[in-house]
Amino acid sequence: MNEHKNIPSDNCETGAHARPPLTILLAAPRGFCAGVDRAVQIVELALEQYGAPVYVRHEIVHNQYVVDSLRAKGAIFVEELDEIPTTDAPVVFSAHGVPKSVPEDAKARKMFFLDATCPLVSKVHMEAERHYKRGLEIILIGHADHPEVIGTMGQLPDGAVNLVESAEQARCYQPKDPAKLAYITQTTLSIDDTREIVDIFCSRFPTITGPHREDICYATTNRQLAVKTIAPRCDRLIVVGAPNSSNSQRLVEVAQRAGCAGAVLLQRARDIDWSDYRDIRTIGVTAGASAPEVLVDEIIAAFAERFEITVEAVSSAEENLSFKLPRELCESA
Length: 333
Fold this sequence. Notes:
By secondary structure, the protein is an alpha/beta fold. It contains eleven helices and twelve strands. 36% of the residues lie in helices and 18% in strands. The longest helix has 17 residues, at 34-50.
């Protein structure tokens, strides 16, 4: 973890006046999770070992800075396989996972593909398949149109998985057979919102089958708990992340509920509205699981130009998990 100290500045924007003091509470854990780190590594290693271009179906992770950085190295991003010309170049599937039809299509086209699906998302896919083989009706708690949800629902035939997005929908849900019911969840949901929905299902259907270990991933859980720790102390809180990043959006909601109404999502330092930061003494800074640390550094440096900052690292958990790379890349290396 980068350590940030008081950062001097020669910026003259504040004229002769002394810069006001500002404490930055830097949440930990924050930023890249093991699944994101693995996915980015897969694209980078494929570029190193096979050369450009490397095709990537969908954004490898939901962060424009990461996507642009990989594009500059030779990655070409597409939404569907039919956008890719006949080629021997590697094709990478994003960390969010894909429907089963995508690798089947890639095989039919004789494409060389690398699957960067996060192993914790793959775990949810396998749970869905097990429930289906047991003849259970499957509920997926998640957000419609999110790539992870599309990929999970696409593991099974149409109609085999029913999406529930809210507590209200959970209260109204009518299964075909309450005795043959199971649920799975998207990995990047709000812990509290998901617990409410699960509690409703467990109360209504006491025999419902859930995951052996909850599906919300460790990184989502740890980042939300870290935000809960610092939010009550903050006048404002910045979540570094992309608007289409589910886990980053959830961090903003968690911060607001935990006592910091001024929590916002920002992609880059250039997006800061400085009028929101007048007469403040303490801000919080964290980053979603797909946001690189360089963007956090950029945000802190921007505040250091206008304030006399003191950075306090606030850690609520330690993370040391890593995932294996695809066999094809290891063998090639």
